[in-house]
Structures are given as structure tokens and as C-alpha cells.
Amino acid sequence: MPFLNSKPLNLSSPRTMNLIGKNGMKNLLCFSENMKIYQEHFFQNEVQQRFYRYTTDCYLFILDGQAFIQNGDQERSIKKHQGVWLKAGSNNKLVPISHRFECLIVTFQNSTAALTFTEFMQVQSTGTAEKSNSPPSNTRWILSSHPLVKIEIELIPKKCHGPLQYHRSTQKFLVSLTDTIQIIQTGKEHVLEAKSGLIFTPNSKHKIINNNEHSVQILNIYSPRVDRDKVLVINKTEH
């Protein structure tokens, strides 16, 4: 699962932390003052269960496969392109029910700022999330209302050349979920295949291009959460 980066983060290749089973792996994709992002993949015949306990709130997003997630007497079924919040300090058991399982794990600093948050163990997807399709923006599903982070799935229309954009103060982690897209930055072009991603630091100008004959879904993770932080660069093109 190749993850690319925008300066100054040095993530030209994931940092392997440890093996999971014989053929699975846990990678560190992002380490910043706001968030840490890990990627895990493993196989059911080698790993029948995984346990998760983090000192901060944690968001688990499924890239491939299906599993049960258990916390005390709560049990949820979670599948591809769905996410769930796990509370800081809680004990959680994941039982894969597909041959191969792949997920992102996102942890955030200063979770004490989220004491009033109550969406733990609630499965979030495009079928349950708040939908926004106000022009000129693309259709978006807001998966999380956590005070420290914004997580959404965005639908990029077919043959779409998006506007040049940047964020003033938030860091964005973007993952292409369903197909290949292009990211244009100053003097750079990144080709992101499905389940590949890119990290944008604040003020990093970029545009998203979908040359496919069909729409593509992407996952956006913003931290810290800042309202009205996105800036569109009008009547200006960067190559």
C-alpha cells in the first residue's frame, strides 16, 4: 500500500513497525503533532483476532474485508469503507470474517478536548452519514463530528479536473478508495492508485483530477478540525 507525501514529511515509503502473523504487516504512515496514522493488513487463517487499546481516541477505517469489533457487551459488524470510533483507554477486540483484512488506524493528540464526544462504537458509512452536496463542492459524506478531526468520504465526478485549493491551518490526509486519480502540485504530479494516499501540510496547493469514465471515492482526514479552512484559488492554474 504505497503512501506518498508532501514536504516536509518524509514518508516516501511506509515505515514497517511489525509483522502481523506470517504475511501481514503494520505500517506507520504519518507521525505529526496532530495525528498518527497506521495501516494494517493480515489474513484470517493466520490471525483470528486483534486487540486494540490506545491512550487517545482512535478511528478505525476499513479499506478491505469485514470484521466484528467488540467492546464489553457491545459488538458491531464493520465492512469495507466503514469506520468506527474507539474510546481512549478502552479494550477492543477485532475478529476478521474475511480472508484478508486491511484497515487504517488514526489516533489523535489531546483527546481530553473530546470529553463530550459520544459516537464511540457507532459504525459510520455513506449510508448513515450526513450528506452534503452544496455547489460548487462535490458530494461529501461527513463520517465524524469529533471535535479534533473531520473525516469525510468525497465523490469525485467522472472526467473531473478540480480547482486549485489549499488549507490554511489544517493537515489533510487523502486516500483514493476506489480507483486511480491524479494529484497536481507545483512542479509535481502524483498518480494515486486505489488504497494509495497523500499527506498535505497546511498551505500546500493542489488539485485533484479524475480522468476515469466513472466517479471515484476518496477519504479525507483533516486535523486539527478547523471550520472554513479550505481556500479555492480562482482563475489560476498550476502545472
Number of domains: 2
Strand content: over 45%
Distance between the termini: 26 Å
Low-pLDDT runs of 5+ residues are 1-13
Query: What is the number of strand segments?
Result: 23
Query: Can you say what the CATH homologous superfamily of the largest domain is?
Result: Jelly Rolls
Averaged pLDDT, please?
Answer: 86
What's the number of helices?
0
Secondary structure: helix percent: under 10%
Please state the overall shape, judged from the principal axes of the Cα atoms. Answer: globular
> Rg to the nearest angstrom?
17 Å
Walk across the major sheet and give the strand order: 1-20-17-22-14-13-12
Task: Spell out the helices and strands N to C.
Answer: EEEEEEEEEEEEEEEEEEEEEEE
Structural class: mainly beta
Report the CATH C-level class of the largest domain. Answer: Mainly Beta
**So, CATH architecture of the largest domain?**
Sandwich
Specify the biggest β-sheet.
7 strands, mixed
State the CATH topology of the largest domain.
Answer: Jelly Rolls
Which SSEs are present, and which pair or pack?
Blueprint: E1 3-5, E2 15-20, E3 24-31, E4 35-43, E5 50-52, E6 58-64, E7 66-71, E8 74-79, E9 83-86, E10 92-96, E11 100-108, E12 130-132, E13 140-142, E14 150-156, E15 160-161, E16 164-167, E17 171-176, E18 181-185, E19 188-192, E20 197-200, E21 207-210, E22 216-223, E23 230-233
Parallel strand pairs: 1-20
Antiparallel strand pairs: 2-3, 3-4, 4-11, 5-10, 6-9, 6-11, 7-8, 7-10, 12-13, 13-14, 14-22, 15-21, 16-23, 17-20, 17-22, 18-19, 18-21
